[in-house]
Amino acid sequence: MLLLNQHLKHNDTSDELIELIDSLMLSCKEIAIKLREGALAGVLGTSEGVNVQGETQKKLDIISNDILKAVLLDNPTVAGVASEEEDHPVPGNPDGKYLVTFDPLDGSSNIDVNVSVGTIFSILECPEGVSGGDDSAFMQSGRKQVAAGYVLYGPCAVLVMTTGQGVNMYTLSHGGDFILTEEAVKIPEQTQEFGINMSNQRFWEPEMQSYVNDLLQGEEGPLGKRYNMRWVASMVAEVHRILTRGGIFMYPWDKRDPAKPGKLRLMYEGNPMSFLIEQAGGLSTTCYDDIMDIQPEKIHQRVAVGLGSKAEVETMLKYHVKD
Ligand code: AHG
Ligand code: MN
Ligand code: MN
Ligand code: MN
């Protein structure tokens, strides 16, 4: 049985990065406790707050965000953090080595119905001479990530993380330790499962409408096999299913707000999940290009997403060829 820190040391992870991951896990354990208390702690339901995304914040969005900010900004390795729930980056130690972006609670629309949610994080190096409170410090493509992962608060709490040497899974024990339970995760290349919010079908590009229509034709259609649809409305749960047994997950561009390429956010959803998916042998795209190649321009910029099993994403890409 290998503890998280033992496994990180075994993989030659630097002491500074281990110290930062320890802070992230301390925060996620505190969040997990709040989630488990639920109604008993009066933490369910919405707050009066509206975040920079225009979303009404759940009480637990704010609680989770506050826990992560307090713990991370107290860590000397952290130069600054950017969060879904913060309009602007928050500076930490001016001599800190790392920047952290996070989605404190992903899938929070599921909180009040007790369905899995998670915390997503991405770690970058802070550029020399740039404040960790400055947007410009974070304008780095997903290829620059030092580490990324999520903690899924499901029937069990699982940390899924990569430091660029593959993807590993660690389950939170009753005693409060993250213990290695899956090493070198590989996504099956083929799949018969797809996930997309079908209620947006009328807003998609024709390319996506045509692909999903063929998925729905099953054995009789051009794809020649039966597909099942899976949709949890928590990106962490969709990605965890794909890392565990394959699949394709899409949140594509839709015409309701043409200026926005999609609903999901690049810096703390698209990039960290893409790092995990690629490290596990899958593909993660905008439905046209690799997400991690995007040069960010804004902290909260959005990105269309089509990720998962390599062969299925390649099939989806064949429908998305702009002539
Ligand atoms: P968040 O709860 O952090 O705002 O993210 C929710 C995201 C993502 O988790 C999920 O895949 C997607 O929103 C679901 O969107 P719809 O409810 O519009 O389908
Ligand atoms: Mn949100
Ligand atoms: Mn999210
Ligand atoms: Mn969120």
How would you summarize this macromolecular structure in one to three sentences?
Its main location: cytoplasm. With 323 residues, the protein is of the alpha+beta class.
Distinctive features:
globular; D-Maltodextrin-Binding Protein, domain 2; 23% strand; Fructose-1,6-Bisphosphatase, Chain A, domain 1; 2 domains; 5-stranded mixed beta sheet; alpha+beta; binds 2,5-anhydro-1,6-di-O-phosphono-D-glucitol; 29% helix; 323 residues; binds manganese (II) ion
Polypeptide structure, described:
With 323 residues, this protein is an alpha+beta fold. It has 2 domains: 4-182, Fructose-1,6-Bisphosphatase, Chain A, domain 1 (2-Layer Sandwich), CATH 3.30.540; 193-319, D-Maltodextrin-Binding Protein, domain 2 (3-Layer(aba) Sandwich), CATH 3.40.190.80. Helices cover 29% and strands 23% of the residues. The chain is built from 8 helices and 15 strands. An 8-stranded mixed beta sheet has the order 4-3-5-6-7-8-9-10, with helices on both faces. It has a 5-stranded mixed beta sheet with strand order 12-11-13-15-14, with helices on both faces. A hairpin with a 6-residue loop joins β3 and β4. α2 (15-37) packs antiparallel against α3 (59-72) and α6 (235-245) packs parallel to α7 (266-279). The chain is globular, with a radius of gyration of 19 Å. 47% of the residues are buried. The model has no long low-confidence stretch (mean pLDDT 97). The structure holds 2,5-anhydro-1,6-di-O-phosphono-D-glucitol and manganese (II) ion (3 copies). One manganese (II) ion is lined by residues 53, 55, 84, 108.
